[in-house]
Amino acid sequence: MPEFAPSRRQALRLAALAAPVLAARPGRAAGFPDRPIRLIIPWAAGGSTDAQMRTMCEIAARHLGQPIVIENRPGARGTFAASILHTQARPDGYTIGQIHQGVLSHPFMTRSATWDSLNDFTYILAITGYLSGIVVREDSPVRDWPGLMAHMRANPGQVSVGTSGVGGASHLVISQLFEKEKVTYLHVPYRGVAETTTALLSGQVDAVADSSGWAPHVEAGRMRLLAVWANERPKRFPDVPSIREFGHDVGGIAPYGLAGPKGMDPEVTARLHDAFKAALYDPQHLAVLERYDMPVLYMTGEEYRAWNAARLPVERDLIRRLGISFEGG
């Protein structure tokens, strides 16, 4: 799988755009917003996305002069926000939601017509991405990644691994990793990192592959982090290897961001972009990103749409190759 993180050239260019100043846009979006904005988070409350988004919305609301009301809608592989934006929301800027990699993969895993990921949304900006990895309970006999592989080979198809949903980033990554390692496993999908964390701690699954909502439990000694899929070892866990160290060029950090329904007024989109960009670089929000090992992956709406356009065929081919598509061909 190609790297998700921006190239060095792109990173340098984006850093030059990173001034946390709300750009003046005289005459734009006159009167917007004049009432609260609804933001849909397609994950359960209590996870890393929820914490990050709530902090960001609190700051963005000050710039917009209106509250931003969070609505958690977990389930459906984290695609309820996309579904609502596609089928229910008016393109007036008052309903927006989180867009992530699962939104790209979803149309390739269902017979039903869903959305065109490139043309059925108005992209506002990309924000950050998840540090993800695989964890076990501290009392597990598995001590490291090679130990997990040995345990899975000794118990083919019996080791249960929880993720935040079929076709999500972590599911696709571990499916590739286990395919390369020639091991089989029992996949147990949940509705978000809060649920996978509970499942692991309560003994419902043997391991969890998910974003860094597990980090506090690793620090507290309740979980053991075996490996991460990132470009390098995380600063907070310098003793934990990247999966690359085991010879796997898989994973990385995929950006996620905000979008609204198709057909939004460019001036309204720009107003939302400016407010959320200012919030992105606010020290209060940057502290939350650091807490969850989430990098700044800022892109404008157009840049984010272009990133998704390049990623879309990769998602399609990967899902079909792994056999989790309901489509033929």
From TrEMBL:
PROSITE patterns linked: TAT
The cross-references to CDD domains, in alphabetical order and at most eight, read: PBP2_Bug_TTT
Q: Which protein family is named in the record? A: Belongs to the UPF0065 (bug) family.
**How is this protein named in the record?**
Tripartite tricarboxylate transporter substrate binding protein
Q: Which organism is it from?
A: Siccirubricoccus soli
